[in-house]
Amino acid sequence: MARNDPPRTRRGLAALLALLAVPPARAQDAGTSYRTVETEHFRVHYPVSAEAWALGTAARLDAVRERVAAEVGDAPDRPVDVVVMDPFNAANGFALPLLDGPRMGVFATAPDPDSVIGHYRTWSELLTTHEETHLDHLDRVSRNPAERLAERVFLGVGPITLRAPRWVMEGYATVVEGRLTGWGRPTSDDRAAWLRALALDGAMPAYEELDAGDRWRGGSMAYLVGSAYLEWLVAHAPPAPEGEARPPLQRLWARASARELRGFDAAFRGVFGDDPAALYGRFRAELAHDAVALDRAERPGAAGEGWADLDGFTGQPAVSPDGKRLVAARRPAKGPGGLVVWSLDPEAEAKRARERAEAVAKALDADPEDAAPVPPPFPEREPEARRLEPARGARWPRWLPDGRVLYTAWFRRGNGEARSELVAWDVDGGGTRRLTRDGGFRDADPLPGGAAAVAVRRLHGESALVRVDLDGGRWRVLRAVGSRRVVANPRVSPDGRRLAWLENDGTGWRIMVGALAEGPAGIALEGARAVTLPAGAAPERLAWLPGEPPSLVAVLGYAGFVEAWRVDPDTGAAVPLTRSRGGVKAAAATPDGRAIFFTAEDPRGDDLRRLALPGEASAGAGAAPGDSGDDAASDEGDWRSGAAAAQGAMRAAAETVARPSPARPAAIAPSEPPEERPFAADPPRGQGAGAVGLGPGGEGALLGGLRRGDGRRARAL
After folding, report:
1. For residues 588-602, average pLDDT
2. How far is it, in rounded angstroms, from Cα 64 to Cα 80?
3. 77 three-state secondary structure
4. For residue 189, what are the CA distances in angstroms to 53, 301, 538, 562?
5. Residue burial 427-449, b: 16+ Cβ < 10 Å; e: rest
């Protein structure tokens, strides 16, 4: 029902006051030397340590602005101050749409491919497109004279910033990041799988929850669901009035900043014909209909058995070399995060099953009229050990031959910066030892013997594969890719002769393999080459699957689904192993190669599941009811021969519901090299307005804005 709702200025004022109340943190080193380069529309301030990434980003900013301005229909007429930073050694960004001078903050560290913001051609393109959209979208001033005066004198921000819901601001920037780059969240298989999981479980957020919520991925709803809803609105918008040539969203922004004062809902009704909450209900209904149709479509793969019912985040699992333990990083919905170890002892598993059966039998003996319960989808499991890391976090655990666990944690430096380092955890003794101190080391995989590991070093916008000595922390570069490429997820083959990893060369992520050989200076990486995957496949995580010869288990986004696939590293032949409702996030094989453990996402978080592979009896430990060799994969001898048919079945399933696939535009070409000059005498000074940014991605906290600097540094909230 239509109504005259008042302008929601309180939202913007509350955000402004909240940001002013936050004390500044020392997120940049006071001793760091800064420089500034200028383009036609931007002043880019960057630390010398991130110069290569900063100059590459600066060279493309004007081209980004041109595209975004054409899409949004507006752009600031003042120079934008951009601060390059790396305070958390993690990926993020923010924008401050201040009317007296817009600001942008960009974090140089790129996200991993399994991040919610990990689907990009280049990180700087995705990041600056999203943040520039915020500036262009929210820079509009009111055409009402009195309100415009208040904005200039008291508020510092425009009417859309003050009145629009968060899901509109973040959802729109997410829509544009997809439209203009052909990448980002709107074109990712992750968003499609996540929306499908919400719809299938009846867990779509209510309209009031779109801005934010305290449930799993609550902070991401504005980006993922908000962008999908805006796309649906544009597709279902009524015809424009005669003589009106602007697209629906540009008309919405014009109405929201009109001379006639009106709230956001009134502006919305004038374009789409009804309240946003009412139309959102129709969007949810259509999404649920399509999700059910896709879920019923025939496609290969198996669900496996529910192994552990978890909430919140669960990272890539790892099985110990003796096959008796499993470790994974956890960040539960409530309580501190860290590492969790479970036992895989088959005798203990059989004992728990007997105890459950005996309890049911005892209840039926006491009450023969009672009905026995169906088997639970997940057995109850108690961890064998925990390593809590509430402050530093814990990611990417891997077992060392001596039973310790190698993992990544973030350590604060004296200047307030955080850097990722490698740590070893004595699971039985309980102690830990920090192994590296130079910063940026992550996602390490031990080499045979456990004296060294191959890790990623990602710092100041540059990336490399390195060999790290786990005794003294010494390291040496195996593959340097600089600031124009990103590497992730290195994994050493079971025989120690090959390395597989993920690499983005500016055309998206690819699986790479190379030989590990002893050279004059120690181990070297030789013959790096890309694995040819099915067209359109986007790799997110990988692990080796033991066998003769060994193959890869890779999480691939493909045709709107995210599953674990078996991949031949030599030929690229690939078949899906899993069939999930909400997407697979990571997988790991058992040492005998007879099963995989994988994390599958549902509306509460990431569950752990187990899938028996061909060669293990379906009635054996870990086999799910109904699992068979036909479901899990073709038999061992000819699994590669079924690759083409399996991929065709996946594409056919996706076509059950028509889903537009926007063409990807050409890469943004760099403009002329920007002029360089000393750091500005008066650095950018934030005025405390509400900040908008790239959003939750498991990569680091969203910064609130910029505070006063001292001429040589920018401070982040």
Report:
1. 97
2. 13
3. coil
4. 28, 17, 8, 6
5. beeeebeebbeebbbbbbbbbee
- Strand 522-530, strand 538-545: pairing: unpaired
Q: Strand 462-469 and strand 452-459: pairing?
A: antiparallel
Tell me the per-residue pLDDT of 607-620, one tens digit each, with 9 for 90 and over.
999 999 976 433 33
The first and second tokens of residue 76, run together, are 């600031």
DSSP state of 288: H
**Residue 49 amino acid letter:** S
* Cβ neighbours for 36, distance < 8 A, ≥ 6 positions apart: 43, 44, 45, 46, 676, 677, 678, 679, 680
Q: What band does 30 get if pLDDT is binned at 50, 70 and 90?
A: low
User: Can you say whether residue 247 is alpha, beta or left, with left for phi > 0 and alpha for psi between -120 and 50 degrees?
Assistant: beta
605-612 and 305-308: which strand pairing? Answer: antiparallel
Cα(300)–Cα(715) distance, rounded to whole angstroms?
51
Q: What pLDDT is stored for residue 694 in this prediction?
A: 72
Which residues contact residue 715 at a Cβ distance below 8 angstroms, ignoring those fewer than 6 apart?
Answer: 24, 25, 26, 27, 28, 706, 707, 708, 709
pLDDT in tens, 293-307: 999 999 999 999 999
Q: Give the pLDDT of residue 675.
A: 59
Helix (H) or strand (E) holding 445: strand 441-446
